[in-house]
Every structure is written in C-alpha cells, then in structure tokens.
Amino acid sequence: LSAWSAVQMGPADPILGVTEAFKADKDPRKINLGVGAYRDGNGKPYILTSVKKAEEIVDASGPDKEYLPITGLADFTKNAAILAYGADSTPLSQGSIAVTQSISGTGALRIGGAFLARHYPNAKIIYLPTPSWGNHTPIFRDSGLEVRGYRYFNKETVGLDFEGLKADLRAAPEQSIVLLHACAHNPTGIDPTHEQWKEISDIVAEKKLFPFFDMAYQGFATGSIPNDAFALRHFVAQGHQVALAQSFAKNMGLYGERVGAFSLTTSGPEEKARVDSQLKIVIRPMYSNPPLHGARIANTILSNEALYSEWEAEVKTMAERIISMREKLYNMLTHDLKTPGEWGHIKSQIGMFSFTGLTPAHTQALAERAHVYMTRDGRISMAGLNGGNIEHFATSVDAAVK
Ligand code: PMP
C-alpha cells in the first residue's frame, strides 16, 4: 500500500486553473483574462526597458552567486522602504522600520502572518475584505491566524460598501489585525477615496486595530508611485504602527523573479533590532535566505536616478494602457453594442482588474462559446485586453448577457 493512498484530490487553484483551461484551447481567438500579469498592446509579456538596462548593469559588475543574508540585500530593502513610506517618512528617518526581503508579495504576507502569529500580543484574528485576493485566506490560515471578513463590495452599486466596512471594523474585537489593500484592490478594482481612507484610519485608531497593508500594485493604480502609497503614508503619519507587504512583480514586471519586502514600523532603533532578530528566526527555517538576481535588478533601478525616472515613466505607460482599455471597453458596451446593464464601473475601477458583474453562468458561456477565459467571479485582468482582441471580447460579453 502506498503511503499516499488516502490522499484526496484537491481542487485546482481558481486563478491558475483558468490559465490551464486557456492553454488547452486551440482556437486562435482565445483570450486569457484570468491571471494578473501585464501584457503589452500585442498581448505579449512585457519586459521593462529599465529592467533590461538594470540587468545589463548587474551583469557588467561581474556578480557572484553567494548567499544573501537571511533578510536579503540590505540596499534593496532600504530602497524598497523609501519607495513605500516616502523619503521624508518619520519612522524611516528615525531608523525604526524593520524590513526584510521576501519571496515577492506572497512571501511577504506569509512572513507577516508567521511573525504576527508568534509575536502579536493580542488576539490573533485577521480581518480580510470580502472579497479579497483568493490566496489571502490560505496564507493567513496556514500562518496560524484566525481569518474573518469585513464587508467591502456592494453588489447593487458595484462599488464600495463603505457603511458595511465601517460597521464591521467597529464591531471587530479591539486590537484585531485588519488587512488593507493599499491600492488597486484585487479582485474588485475599487479603492476607498482619500477621505474614506482618513475615516478608516480614525476607526482603526479608535478600535486599536493593527493595520497590515498589502501593497502589490504600487504605481499600477494611478500610474503614480506616491499617489498609490497615500493610504499607507497617511496611516503612518497618523501614528499607526503598521505591517507592510510589498511586491515588485507587477510594477517592475519581475513576476518570476520573486522580489518583495516585508516591513514593520517599531517604536525605535532598539525595538527594531529586537524585531529584526525575530524576523530572522521566523525566516531561517522557512527558506534560509531569499533569491539574489531580482533583488539586484530592483535595487539597481531604485538606486540609479536615470533608471528610476525611466522606470516611473514605464509604470505610468502600463497604467495608462490599462486605463485606455477601460475607456474603450466601456464605450463599446455602452455606446456601440448597447449591451444591457450598467457598465460605468469598468471605467471607474482601478488597477489591473475589473469586477465586471458577470455571473458564473456568463463566465462559463464565454469560455465554452467564445474562448474567453476569466475567473468564475467575473473578474477580468484588463491587461489581457488590447486593440486586437477587445472587439471579440466586447461582442462576446454582449452575446452572453443578451
Ligand atoms: N497581494 C495581492 C492583492 C495580489 O493581487 C498579489 C498577486 N496576484 C499578491 C499579493 C502577490 O503576488 P506575488 O507573490 O506574485 O508578488
């Protein structure tokens, strides 16, 4: 008898499963709007010019392949923290931010989950928005936290359920952990306004909640690095202690290089040193130390003024292409095809994704009849649309809902 004879078949990953179905489809009109990876105007993966140049600089420096320290490349983590918190951030200038390199955003969330499970002195309950990125629940559950939800999405308005969100955070036990998408909320594409963020910050203060920011899309939401960090920087300026997961997958297109950072603000250098030591103790048995190459690329961009400017412009170009696809899709559905329903949210939503309002039955029909693939909840990656396929997509949606 095999040791694994009782192992049950598990369900396919709901997001990566879409790509598998797409790959198996041989129709030339097929479109993959499942996974959140940027595609250029020709539907091709895009390597940023700033990344190519940074890679050349790294290569030319004759780099070795030695191990990094447990918390990664120190210059990279310093620059990653500046990018997120801002060069003028008070905790940064006080030397009170504990930061470690991570295996992209997922790894940052997992380090955070494990650190909180071990050291957070209050109830180990984390509140996630409903809905949230599908991997948040398993990450925090497997880290040993109790996962609960707060209202976020209003089906009727296809907008933010701000009253529900406030009521749920007010009803949470004091000192609970609350996960906040810093910008470009995945999957809904709906972000609080600056005024709403200020109210959320006040409730978090009132209820002594612990804010954990997931910032996987800095620059991708509005095209501006500081703009997209508004929520994080506001919370820090209000005196909140925060946790932060950063990913460079999307904004540098470094998906497979797995470049990220996890940080915590502390009360000062002495506490930071203690927190740093415990971060190492969490990380060492997980994977010992992080990968080298991507961190060198990201650090070269972040530390070189000319490359940084070029990168900023490229982030803006990516964000703007996505915004132009929103406009185009909205116009096709509303004006050209007169598709039944209200599609204004396609234009107003932010970031990589749009929560279309299409039902599981629609998404199934689109896959089977039109070779158009998306997650069952009707989320589409706007980056998968381009001048060559948007008409097929719009007419297929029109046919599916009519
Ligand atoms: N958080 C959110 C909200 C995401 O959408 C993603 C990627 N889909 C991640 C974190 C992590 O991605 P990665 O591990 O590739 O950086």
UniProtKB/TrEMBL annotation:
<dbReference type="GO" id="GO:0004069">
    <property type="term" value="F:L-aspartate:2-oxoglutarate aminotransferase activity"/>
</dbReference>
<keyword id="KW-0032">Aminotransferase</keyword>
<comment type="similarity">
    <text>Belongs to the class-I pyridoxal-phosphate-dependent aminotransferase family.</text>
</comment>
<dbReference type="GO" id="GO:0006533">
    <property type="term" value="P:L-aspartate catabolic process"/>
</dbReference>
<dbReference type="InterPro" id="IPR000796">
    <property type="entry name" value="Asp_trans"/>
</dbReference>
<dbReference type="InterPro" id="IPR004839">
    <property type="entry name" value="Aminotransferase_I/II_large"/>
</dbReference>
<feature type="domain" description="Aminotransferase class I/classII large">
    <location>
        <begin position="29"/>
        <end position="396"/>
    </location>
</feature>
<dbReference type="InterPro" id="IPR004838">
    <property type="entry name" value="NHTrfase_class1_PyrdxlP-BS"/>
</dbReference>
<dbReference type="InterPro" id="IPR015424">
    <property type="entry name" value="PyrdxlP-dep_Trfase"/>
</dbReference>
<dbReference type="InterPro" id="IPR015421">
    <property type="entry name" value="PyrdxlP-dep_Trfase_major"/>
</dbReference>
<dbReference type="GO" id="GO:0030170">
    <property type="term" value="F:pyridoxal phosphate binding"/>
</dbReference>
<dbReference type="GO" id="GO:0005739">
    <property type="term" value="C:mitochondrion"/>
</dbReference>
<protein>
    <recommendedName>
        <fullName>Aspartate aminotransferase</fullName>
        <ecNumber>2.6.1.1</ecNumber>
    </recommendedName>
</protein>
<dbReference type="InterPro" id="IPR015422">
    <property type="entry name" value="PyrdxlP-dep_Trfase_small"/>
</dbReference>
<keyword id="KW-0808">Transferase</keyword>
<comment type="subunit">
    <text>Homodimer.</text>
</comment>
<dbReference type="Pfam" id="PF00155">
    <property type="entry name" value="Aminotran_1_2"/>
</dbReference>
<keyword id="KW-0663">Pyridoxal phosphate</keyword>
